[in-house]
Amino acid sequence: MRKLIALFMLAGILFVPVFANAQDAAADTTAATEETQAVEEPAASPTMVDDEIVAEEQSFHQIIKEKFIEGDPVYMTPVLICLILGLAIALERIITLNLSTTNTKKLINKIEEALASGGVEAAKDVTKSTKGPVASIFTQGLMRYSEGIEMVEKSIIAYGSVEMGRLEKGLVWISLFISLAPMLGFMGTVIGMIFAFDTIEAAGDISPSIVAGGIKIALLTTVAGLIVAIILQLFYNYLVAKIDSLVNDMEDASISLVDVLVKHKLTGK
């Protein structure tokens, strides 16, 4: 019995340190794993943070600025000037054309009421107080009312051509910049390729590092010219559509005005 107790005690003495060591080893392994994860996570976090910071720093404006510098400001600046001038003219035309828009139906009703109540002079006051090319044409037509309906029609047609020319003012410059921007870009392309070939000739060898600078200038200037042309072409098409709409309104309103004047003359009011 004593031998059994001694054996159990000996076994306990032998196994307890081993079990304790196993627990300690497991605990150490767990702690080491946690420390490794803790060490790895902070190491990864700054990388992600740095990437996010770099991504935030590389804004669209900065990318455009870098490409502008890489494409050589000597060749990119004329293209940029075409864009600035073209957009300035386009925005001015958009504002002017939108302000020139008139509610022709409402204006015709006012003129008809003025003719019925106060005659031609009252109708002139209505048109003079209204802004826009349609009202200006109506004013010119009413000024010729005493000379007959035919003179009214001729006056409307003649002054309508004048107003159409005013509406189309500035479009020729936008068209010029649309054509000029790609040509400037292609000129930068040709100059860049010449520069690349000169570099190859001077080095006596062809390598990507030698010709990269000239090819980059060539490609960036071409892309810049095409982008400017596309942007200005969109504004140009919008302006042409807006002018066509205003011209159609002027023609329809002129016919309506002549009908109102004929009705007024026949009724004698």
List keywords for this structure.
269 residues; 2 domains; disordered N terminus; rod-shaped; mainly alpha
Account of the protein in words:
The chain is mainly α. It folds into 2 domains: 1-63; 76-267, no CATH class. It has 8 helices and no strands. One of its GO terms (cellular component) is plasma membrane. It is found in: Cell membrane; Membrane. Keywords: Cell membrane, Cell projection, Cilium, Flagellum, Membrane, Protein transport, Signal, Transmembrane, Transmembrane helix, Transport. Residues 132-251 form the MotA/TolQ/ExbB proton channel domain.
List the helices and strands and how they pair.
Blueprint: H1 2-57, H2 60-70, H3 73-100, H4 104-128, H5 133-143, H6 149-167, H7 171-203, H8 208-267
